[in-house]
Specification:
Elements lengths: L3 H21 L4 E4 L45 H4 L2 H9 L2 E4 L6 E6 L2 H10 L4 E4 L4 E6 L5 E5 L2 E4 L5 E2 L9 E2 L2 H4 L7 H4 L20 H16 L5 H16 L7 H13 L4 H14 L3
Amino acid sequence: MTHATPIRREARTGHLALALHLATMGLPVLPLRAGKGPLGNCRTCADNVCGGRPNMKTPGPCACPRPCHAWAAATTDPAVLASSPWATAWRDAGVVGYHPGGAGVTVVDLDDAAAVAWARATLPLTRTVATTRGEHWIYSGTMRSVNGVRAGVDIKSTMSYSRWLGPGTGTLAELPDTVRALPEKPSTARAALRAVTVPAPVGGGECRHRSPAYLERGIAMAEQRITDAASGVHATVYRTFLAVLSAHGRCGCLTEAHIARLFTVAQAKGESSRHCTDAWSNAQTALGM
């Protein structure tokens, strides 16, 4: 316990130093949580009552001094990055993120070995950054961001964020038409849908359902909440998974079929299988499950 404060201060300093360095290179940066997602909006900006920057093509109209609104908070301004309102964010951040579109680049996020093999056979070589499970292929140029353009492949560019994992290797190539065309293929939305791979929670807690109708109503409401999300889909999926697990995850009534329904509707909104799995795991961790 005596080492907690120095360690947290060292982590904050390290994240901030890296963020300031990246900002000098023209990368708009922002803090990301340990689960690789953006920080939630502050109370003033909760539910986008301030105007909701993620709904805009450019940052604004909210002028919140905190790192709210995910990608739209990313900045190259060292005064903002080092300001007092951002201090807690850097202290609690898990990694440094950046807005690819704001830096004039597009990240093709390859989630697994199969996606990497597809890229190597299909796309022109460019700068490559290794990830935990696959690779980021980075191209010069921007386009709209779309998750699940094919199995294991997400595009992160405008109105999106990506983790900074290092400068990578190779020469930055121009964004090819092959990548620009990926979101336009009508079959790609279904290609991202995968069978659920997470097990249902182990039961043992008190069941509050009383009848199957309670659980069914809860799952249906969760599906509708995700379907109705007009922005902030990542955050909506995580909060919905958290709510479902909190209400139904400790008694053993929640089955893999229920989880598959939630994953399916999330992927239909553009979430990748990996994002769904990560959100589910983060929600379980938050609840101590």
